[in-house]
Amino acid sequence: MNNKGILTVVSGFSGAGKGTVMKKLMENYDNYALSISMTTRAPRTGETHGKEYFFSTREEFEQKIEAGQLLEYACYCDNYYGTPREYVEEQLAAGKDVILEIEIQGALKIKQQCPDCLLLFVTPPSAKELEKRLVGRGTETMEVISKRLSRATEESEGIEAYDYIVINDDLEACVKELHSIVQNAHNTVERRAEFIKEIREELKQFSKGAK
Amino acid sequence: MNNKGILTVVSGFSGAGKGTVMKKLMENYDNYALSISMTTRAPRTGETHGKEYFFSTREEFEQKIEAGQLLEYACYCDNYYGTPREYVEEQLAAGKDVILEIEIQGALKIKQQCPDCLLLFVTPPSAKELEKRLVGRGTETMEVISKRLSRATEESEGIEAYDYIVINDDLEACVKELHSIVQNAHNTVERRAEFIKEIREELKQFSKGAK
After folding, report:
1. What is the ipTM score, two decimals?
2. A1 and chain B: CB distance < 8 Å anywhere?
3. Which residues in B lie closer than 8 A to residue A207 (C-beta atoms)?
4. How far apart (Å, rounded) are the C-alpha atoms in residues A18 and B72?
5. Do A149 and B207 touch (CB under 8 A)?
6. How many C-beta atoms lie closer than 10 Å to residue A65's C-beta?
7. Distance CA B162, CA A188 (A)
8. Which overall architecture, per CATH, does domain A36-94 show?
9. What is the enclosing helix (H) or strand (E) of B118?
10. CA atoms within 13 A on the CB side of B62
11. Helices A193-210 and B127-136: crossing angle, nearest 10°?
12. What does the alpha-carbon distance between residue B114 and residue A21 come to, in Å, rounded to a whole number?
């Protein structure tokens, strides 16, 4: 059997409900590990090192960049954010399917580093529904909503780089679908190479024996 | 939504239980159509034209070959067997997911004709289990079992041409997995091209409107 986990990168429009989908996925199934980002920004109240983020100094972060220990990184508002390679690789080696939630630029960098990762794009069933969800939150000004919509328009240009579209219409159905995409990926011929080799060898022995 | 069906080619070792898996798949889900082969051999008692096979004369069959109306064909024991293109295309256009059970040479020809088809290979969990099933039938001589095992050894050389391995250990689990592979395939970015185009256009309209 193939015991190595699969790295799945999840992106999607702001308002697509990615956060809720991830939370539900972790609740419903126990074979997943969420990748934890590293950042140089200060922890906020209630945030724990190794849970929300790995917090690090600027020096430590830059050393990791130099040493190739980050799968990707970016700088926002003077702070670094990145994906530590070691944590992801440890979880994969332990057989966990690792989920990494990140925007498209990061997703493309991850794909370069890990060509056999899966890229999933979560989207509401329509742009109308996306707008409804953004407006429906009731917490955003029209200016923010407008910015998010034009951000989504930009993001939609990159969807072809992904492997699968996951439509979040019904939460449970969406989580089930995401799970089944990752689980099926374990059975591609590439990921089953070892099983194929074994059964082939075994068959050779048997057909010799039967002659 | 993507309403066109997906063509799935199913192969597997003799003794892997493909027949039972196909039957159960048809029973459990109503979105599938089984491809029907055309043959020049005479109908056996109880066989109906358009059910087990499309029966045809040699002339008719050869005309179809000439006209490119067969997705693949082969000649066994002086009789032609082939896959009529029209029936498959009609079912796909009607939104049915078409299942075509065929051995590897045929599968490779189908893939050439229909590059976006899915190739699945059904196998028991081990060669030991395959031998057990072949012996367990109790209807075959050791000579026949030995021939099947060396046939399986040959077939195992071609597995890398397939997209997915489907292990038939537990029948219900196997059918469910096969179903989920085909259903997930509807959500690849390639097959969702129309949805992506639509949501992109719609987003452009909205973000213009929101400005």
Report:
1. 0.89
2. no
3. 146, 149-150, 152-153
4. 44
5. yes
6. 12
7. 8
8. 2-Layer Sandwich (3.30)
9. strand B118-123
10. 4
11. 50
12. 35
CATH annotation of B1-31+97-211: 3.40.50.300
- Rounded average pLDDT per 10-residue block, chain B, 211 residues: 85 88 95 95 92 94 96 91 95 96 93 94 92 79 84 91 96 96 96 94 81 54
Q: What is the dihedral of CA B34, B36, B42, B44, to 10 degrees?
A: 10
CB-based burial, A112-143: b 16+ in 10 Å, e otherwise: eebeebbbbbbbbebbebbbebbeeeeeeeee
**Three-state DSSP class for residue B158:** coil
Quick check: A210 pLDDT over 70? no
Q: How far apart are CA B65 and CA B62, in angstroms?
A: 5
| Contact assessment for residue B118 and residue B185, using Cβ atoms and an 8 Å cutoff | yes
Q: What sign does the dihedral A113-A116-A122-A123 (CA atoms) show?
A: positive
Q: Does A152 touch chain B (CB under 8 A)?
A: yes
Residue span(s) of chain B under CATH 3.40.50.300 come to 1-31+97-211
Chain B nearest C-alpha distance from A189 (Å): 5
Residues 6+ apart with CB under 8 A from A29: A179
